[in-house]
């Protein structure tokens, strides 16, 4: 009889454990946060990318000032919490990535071979590692990616595209600005096809630099508000690079 009671108790404990596991470890995105190291109210930070990861690390972000850009640490720290505000431990890094919906979605996102948003190689913009005991991980880059975020040099950074940390396909909405980060990306892979080619990217770059029509952010890789030789140097250095 005692043995049956013990077995029954163990079954109940196991059932309770499975029930708890069914709810524990699931991020509650309204409680989760993504914070940028050098976050400054109303100011964008840009990070240049290349498909092979030879672009800038997140510690080499650039922010516009009155005359030229300044170097900033754009490293992102992510904290995942469940519905009970408990840290979510060992959430897989490959299920945490970045996305950039355009400020104004175009009718055709690939118009003129110039897509809006960061377009990553497979696992090219995921978190550095799975979450630790505090439910935290980071994005330090450099990323393997092409494309560019929606941006205009209109002195109002609130009008531009945003970066969101995605967790299994849904954005983190907790923290300041509902999870939206004032983080920009551009790349030598202008058309976002995963490779630098003369047939596409050189033609697109030539049409935007130097530009008699004005400033073009998507080739301002040095991010100083000017299309100049520093951008050409970065673009040329990425010659023929591809996603791994």
List the helices and strands and how they pair.
Layout: H1 2-23, E1 33-36, E2 45-49, E3 61-64, E4 69-72, E5 76-79, E6 96-99, E7 117-120, E8 136-139, E9 145-148, E10 164-167, E11 170-171, E12 183-187, H2 198-208, H3 229-237
Parallel strand pairs: 2-12
Antiparallel strand pairs: 1-5, 3-4, 5-8, 6-10, 7-9, 10-11
Structural notes for this entry:
This protein has helices spanning 2-23, 198-208, 229-237; strands at residues 33-36, 45-49, 61-64, 69-72, 76-79, 96-99, 117-120, 136-139, 145-148, 164-167, 170-171, 183-187. By secondary structure, the chain is of the alpha+beta class. It has one domain (26-237). The strands form five sheets. A three-stranded antiparallel beta sheet has the order 1-5-8, with no helix packed on it. β3 and β4 form a beta hairpin. The longest helix has 22 residues, at 2-23. It starts with a helix and ends in a 7-residue tail after the last helix. The relative contact order is 0.20. Residues 1-24 and 107-112 have low confidence and may be disordered.
Strands of the widest sheet, in order across it, are 1-5-8
Average pLDDT, all residues: 84
Shape: globular
Tell me the Rg in angstroms.
22 Å
What is the ordering of alpha helices and beta strands? HEEEEEEEEEEEEHH
* Structure summary, number of beta strands: 12
Number of structurally distinct domains: 1
Extract low-pLDDT stretches: 1-24, 107-112
- Give the amount of beta strand, in percent: 15-25%
Largest sheet: 3 strands, antiparallel
> Distance between the terminal alpha carbons, to the nearest Å?
64 Å
Number of helices: 3
Helix content, binned percent: 10-25%
Judged by helices, strands and strand pairing, the structural class is: alpha+beta
């Amino acid at each position: 009889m005692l043995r049956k009671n013990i077995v029954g108790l163990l079954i109940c404990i196991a059932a309770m454990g499975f029930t708890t596991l069914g709810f524990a470890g699931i991020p509650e995105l309204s409680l989760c946060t993504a914070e940028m190291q050098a976050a400054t109210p109303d100011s964008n930070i840009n990070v240049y990318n290349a498909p092979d990861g030879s672009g800038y690390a997140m510690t080499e972000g650039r922010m516009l000032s009155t005359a030229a850009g300044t170097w900033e640490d754009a490293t992102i720290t992510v904290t995942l919490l469940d519905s009970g505000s408990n840290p979510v431990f060992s959430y897989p890094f490959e299920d945490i990535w970045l996305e950039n919906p355009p400020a104004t979605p175009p009718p055709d996102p690939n118009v003129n071979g110039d897509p809006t948003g960061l377009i990553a190689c497979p696992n090219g913009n995921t978190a550095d590692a799975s979450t630790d005991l505090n439910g935290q991980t980071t994005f330090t880059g450099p990323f393997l990616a092409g494309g560019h975020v929606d941006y205009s040099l209109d002195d109002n950074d609130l009008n531009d595209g945003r970066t969101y940390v995605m967790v299994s396909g849904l954005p983190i909405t907790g923290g300041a600005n509902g999870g939206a980060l004032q983080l920009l990306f551009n790349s030598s892979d202008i058309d976002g096809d995963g490779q630098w080619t003369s047939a596409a990217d050189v033609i697109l770059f030539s049409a935007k630099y130097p530009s008699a029509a004005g400033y073009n952010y998507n080739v301002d890789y040095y991010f100083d508000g000017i299309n100049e030789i520093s951008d050409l140097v970065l673009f040329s250095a990425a010659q023929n690079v591809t996603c791994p």
